[in-house]
Amino acid sequence: MKLVLVTFLLVSLILSPSLFEVSMAGSCSSKCKTRCSKAGVKARCLKYCGICCKKCKCVPSGTYGNKHECPCYRDLKNSKGKPKCP
Q1: Cut 0.85: pTM above it
Q2: 19 vs 26, 59, 79, CA distance in Å?
Q3: Which candidate in 17, 24, 38, 83 could, as Cys together with 63 as Cys, close a disulfide (CB 3.0–4.6 Å)?
């Protein structure tokens, strides 16, 4: 019985980081869907929001503004020095 329990714990510890990444990806997807719901070019908005969310682990609430909620998201810049995240 102890061997089964130890095996279960080891397997769950090994799998937990990958499960966490999947849950974060789902979280980014739903948050970016909300963020980009009113965007003129949704595909581009979703692409860059997804990139920013994966890097920063957060997305500001609403469809525009509120970037103070996520400083990393706010401070990412593209190669021209303009804000990268929608």
Answers
A1: no
A2: 11, 20, 33
A3: 38
